[in-house]
Design brief:
The protein has 10 helices and 13 strands. It has 280 residues and is an alpha/beta fold. It folds into 2 domains: 65 residues, Helicase, Ruva Protein, domain 3; 190 residues, Rossmann fold. A hairpin with a 5-residue loop joins strand 12 and strand 13. The longest helix is centred in the first third of the chain and has 15 residues. It comes from Thalassotalea piscium. Its EC number is 2.1.1.297.
Length: 280
């Protein structure tokens, strides 16, 4: 059969992905809308529309990649974050909904005045560019040690129209000018223990280990950043971290030992501690 309907392909996709995805039908819809270059609303409006053989074969090839747990974002090269479309690649972590809690927390604590902000480990640029979209007067630096990530973040900044965000390569603070001072430092660093069994399961196995794993049971990069950030924060400046749901106590203790004040943790949409912040 050379052609088949949209609804038939969606049903086939759902059937193929049920064992591999918690959102099998949505995954199928996203992949088919990508192949057809149409919004999902088109698929819902025209379920009996015929799909040609070439598009059908392309769709089936993408389904096979998804069956092997390759993330949807890598397959289509894009992920929405903060209602903004971000280009993604296997060199960067895929932006996650929980990270929006980090952005929300920063925005709630800092208004529209002129603030200086540094996003450490920017990846796709998601955090920095989301903040830039809401606070146009802020002066924002975004850094990453991975040159491919830096290039991608710059591409996202250009496509989204936030070209004033200063994006550059640095291994944490190694290339940040020693005289620079920030009102806000924010980071979603690697925080998974390298022996965590989930690293070889499901979608996460496709993501770069360098963006996921830290030594010292996942606390290593928090230690480095927190120790040095205090020297780059203005008086009363704020440091924000996203972290694993079981790391809140350890992170609060670390920040207290290093002399930070006003330490507080925020829960994510599932009721788990996900963001911790403190004041210099």
């Amino acid at each position: 059969m050379s052609t088949v309907t949209i609804s038939t392909l969606i049903s086939l996709g759902k059937q193929m992905l049920t064992q591999n995805s918690d959102s099998a039908k949505l995954d199928a819809q996203i992949l088919l809308s990508f192949v057809l270059n149409k919004p999902i609303s088109y698929l819902l409006t025209w379920p009996e529309e015929q799909v040609g053989s070439t598009n059908k074969e392309d769709f089936l090839l993408l389904l096979q990649r998804r069956v092997l747990h390759e993330p949807i974002a890598y397959i289509i090269g894009e992920k929405e974050f903060w209602s903004l479309p971000f280009k993604v690649s296997p060199s960067t972590l895929i932006p996650r909904p929980d990270t929006e809690v980090l952005v929300e927390t920063v925005l709630q604590n800092h208004g529209d005045g002129t603030h200086t902000c540094c996003d450490l480990g920017t990846g796709t640029g998601a955090i920095a560019l989301a903040l830039a979209s809401e606070r146009t007067s802020w002066i924002i630096d975004a850094i990453d040690f991975n040159t491919d990530a830096v290039s991608l973040a710059k591409e996202n900044a250009a496509s989204l129209g936030f070209i004033t965000v200063n994006i550059y390569q640095s291994d944490w603070f190694s290339k940040v000018e020693s005289t620079k001072q920030f009102d806000i430092i924010v980071s979603n660093p690697p925080y998974i223990d390298k022996v965590d069994p989930h690293l070889v399961e499901g979608d996460v196995q496709y993501e770069p280990l360098s963006a996921l794993v830290a030594d010292k049971e996942g606390m290593g990069d928090f230690m480095i950043i927190a120790e040095h950030a205090i020297n780059y924060l203005n008086p009363n400046g704020m440091l924000y971290f996203e972290h694993g749901y079981e790391q809140g106590d350890s992170l609060r203790n670390l920040l207290k030992v290093l002399g930070y004040r006003g330490i507080k943790s925020i829960k994510d949409y599932n009721g788990h501690e996900r963001v911790t912040f403190a004041q210099r």
